[in-house]
Amino acid sequence: MDNLELDQRLTARKVDQYLKHDFERYLRQCGAHRADISSPSMSGMPSSTFGNYQEEKLVEGLYAASVVDCIKHTITNCSDGDIRKPYKIILVDYYLKGMQGFKIAQKIGYSDRQFANKKRMALCEFADRFEYWKHVFKVQDQPCLQVPKSAKNVHTMCTAKEIL
How far apart are CA 126 and CA 131, in angstroms? Predict the structure, then answer.
């Protein structure tokens, strides 16, 4: 989204829903679990097919594994070198490890209110970085998670660059 300011609340909500629902579906489709995300590679993928149905399932599983890898790389690429931007820690602990928000807030030394703000910022950074990693992993058909301030609803998609 070039030169457009994001609606941080709507963008954060859209990313939150994506990570809670779509991400979970892709994990199931490729036979992975959230705990597998910390692994260096996705293993256990089928290596041969026995017909059209199995081939379709294999392709679906491989695509899902690409989406999961894209999400993994997006999260691990988020900021964490500065205590003022503990975005990677927040995303890993909340969405991959399933920690409760107040526990993460305690871990990083923020009040619940400060944590909510940092989590929103982490989700917005995820949305920005996701656009790059979608191209790297060739899963450009994944939704744009950025919501411009001028958008009327959460389902507004990115500009033409998403189609490219």
Answer: 9
